[in-house]
Specification:
The complex is a heterodimer of chains A (about 375) and B (about 190). Chain A is mainly α and about 375 residues long. Chain A has helices spanning about 15-30, 55-70, 75-90, 110-130, 135-145, 175-190, 195-205, 210, 225-230, 240-260, 265-270, 280-295, 305-320, 325-330, 350-365, and strands spanning about 40-45, 50, 90-95, 100, 110, 155-160, 165, 345-350. Chain B has helices spanning about 5-15, 15-25, 35-65, 70-90, 105-115, 120-130, 135-155, 160-185. Classes of the chains: A mainly alpha (about 375), B mainly alpha (about 190).
């Protein structure tokens, strides 16, 4: 006990986790601006917002809102996500047969932004059974495939002034985001030839990425790759990919166990470090939930299921307990900007809510034994 | 390697029969040499019961403490290291045993904690939660059977150099086991 502190999993009741999902969705919807952008970064102590923005995170938040719209049947979330989509539409760069999401100045289209925009559109399609953006999905898919290198990795961005990819540098997470997006595209349009780039990306991520990125303790903690592997589990992964998934699950598990040992007192911070921000913990929940889904269909990982569910309950409980409640929010100048968010050192950023929201939604699937990732009922039929 | 074999190797390193030889010799008085079978048997039987109970109660105990078995494994590795380094540097198990008691049972009671120390008990908890209580108890029975044989046979070993070399090897094995246990704890979900 002296060497290993006890673990605390917060509020692990299913209804508390469900309530936290609703609150997080509410924060994102409530704090959206008229032009479709979300509240990017907010300091509750100073009641001030940071005047910066990030299109990759914007696309990620929109994706989570579409997931929430489908899972919760939440029309407010759908409308907010559609407004977010409108902002992205206004920042598209189109060439020949492809489209890419660029930043505010239009000089660069980062791979991650287009990948998460494609994932958002795929989630919208699943939630609404509405094919109005199918062609845009294909355009974004063609951009991602164009950016794929022969080894399965990806160039990081498209430089509009140079009309060429940025050949220098790599990104740790964009390849996983691209893989996840292409895997969703493959699922949406199974007969359109997306299989080969998806498999090539999977091969790169599970064999070469850690080396290319010089990851000190592989595998890289990347929930996007976990999402993608779960999505391509039919017709099946190679043994090497299953082994990679096993190691990735172990890494998520270790991080959750370590986080459960943290406490926010001065001694706890000194000995164990500060509590992780929700954007971190949320990605571990997302990754573990995706791998639980994979383990539910691939018998080679079946032995991990019980422990995965334990970790998902614990990590979701931690998030539920750390979320700002309505009572806590009442003590601040702008309660609506506090309630339902996760703060560290007084600040929150929109991806804190994004990752916690997506993670807890899919953790609930695991806790309730729902293997199918999509909504039970499309939002249009309600 | 089967789970039983892995648990047996780990428990053998943690119980450290070769490291127990020198403390055992000190505990058994010259005049009691003929009784050493009984003392070794009683000490090992007590250790087996204790280790088995520890393996059986390990999981509920960790549950009660809100510690996952996987995190405990990393702690168990740390708990093994003092014993391992003591074996390597001093060529015997950690012990406060300098002399035997007045009778056999008392002597056995003094030998027992040399075998059932923190390393052995943390190994019992770890293997009980990792491989199952039955496997851990089976492995413990095997290891303590070997320990009785080693302790009894060691009475006829005239050259302490071999005993010390075996104890050091036992310590080295325990370091390997501790590292494996820590790595497995890190690599577990």
């Amino acid at each position: 006990v002296a060497v290993v502190p006890p673990e605390s999993c917060g509020d692990v009741k299913t209804e508390s986790i469900e309530a936290a999902v609703v609150e997080a969705t509410g924060w994102l919807v409530r704090n959206q601006q008229p032009d479709g952008r979300y509240l990017y970064e907010y300091d509750a102590e100073k009641d001030s917002a940071t005047p910066t923005y990030n299109e990759v995170r914007h696309a990620g938040v929109t994706m989570s809102l579409y997931q929430a719209a489908g899972k919760l049947g939440d029309r407010d979330a759908l409308e907010a996500a559609d407004r977010g989509l409108g902002w992205m539409d206004g920042h598209l760069v189109r060439r020949r047969d492809w489209a890419a999401l660029a930043g505010a100045d239009g000089s660069e289209a980062k791979l991650g932004a287009s990948a998460l925009m494609l994932a958002a559109l795929a989630e919208r399609r699943v939630a609404t059974v509405d094919g109005q953006h199918d062609e845009l999905m294909r355009e974004l898919g063609r951009f991602i495939v164009m950016m794929q290198r022969p080894d399965g990795g990806f160039y990081v961005s498209w430089l509009t002034a140079r009309e060429a990819p940025q050949y220098e540098g790599t990104s740790r997470y964009y390849p996983g985001e691209a893989f996840w997006a292409l895997s969703l595209l493959r699922k949406a349009f199974p007969d359109e030839g997306w299989e080969a780039p998806v498999r090539l990306a999977a091969s790169f991520l599970t064999t070469r990425r850690d080396e290319v990125e010089d990851v000190s303790f592989p595998p890289l903690v990347d929930q996007w790759t976990a999402y993608g592997l779960a999505e391509i589990s039919d017709p099946g992964l190679t043994d090497q990919q299953v082994e990679y998934a096993r190691r990735l699950a172990a890494r998520f598990g270790l991080l959750v166990r370590t986080e459960a040992q943290r406490e926010d007192g001065w001694l706890g911070r000194l000995v164990r470090g500060p509590e992780s921000r929700a954007a971190g913990t949320g990605t571990w929940v997302e990754g573990m939930a995706a791998l639980w889904r994979l383990a539910s269909t691939d018998e080679r990982l079946a032995d991990l299921r019980p422990k995965m569910v334990e970790r998902l309950r614990c990590s979701s409980g931690i998030l539920a307990a750390r979320q700002a409640s309505v009572d806590e929010a009442g003590a601040y100048a702008s309660p609506g900007r506090v309630q339902g968010a996760w703060f560290r050192d007084g600040g929150t950023r929109m991806d804190d809510q994004q990752h916690a929201l997506s993670g807890m939604m899919y953790a609930l699937d695991a806790l309730q034994g729902r293997v199918d990732r999509g909504p039970d009922d499309p939002i249009t039929s309600r | 390697m089967s789970d039983l074999a892995r648990a047996a190797v780990g428990l053998l390193a943690a119980v450290a029969p070769f490291g127990a030889i020198l403390p055992f010799r000190r505990a058994v008085r010259e005049g009691e040499a003929t009784a050493l079978r009984g003392i070794a048997g009683a000490a090992c039987l007590g250790t087996l019961v204790f280790i088995s109970a520890t393996a059986a109660l390990g999981e509920p105990f960790l549950d009660w403490l809100d510690i996952t078995p996987e995190n405990f494994q990393m702690a168990a590795a740390l708990l093994m290291l003092p014993q391992a380094f003591y074996l390597i540097w001093r060529s015997e198990s950690m012990s406060i045993l300098d002399a035997g008691g007045d009778d056999r049972m008392r002597t056995a009671a003094l030998v027992f904690p040399v075998l059932a120390g923190p390393a052995a008990l943390s190994a019992a908890v770890s293997y009980g939660t990792r491989f199952g209580v039955g496997t851990a108890v089976g492995a413990a029975a095997l290891v303590l059977g070997i320990t009785v044989v080693v302790l009894v046979a060691s009475a006829t070993w005239k050259w302490d150099g071999w005993v010390r070399a075996l104890a050091m090897l036992n310590g080295a094995l325990l370091v390997v086991i501790a590292v494996e246990m820590a790595v497995d704890g890190v690599q577990s979900v």
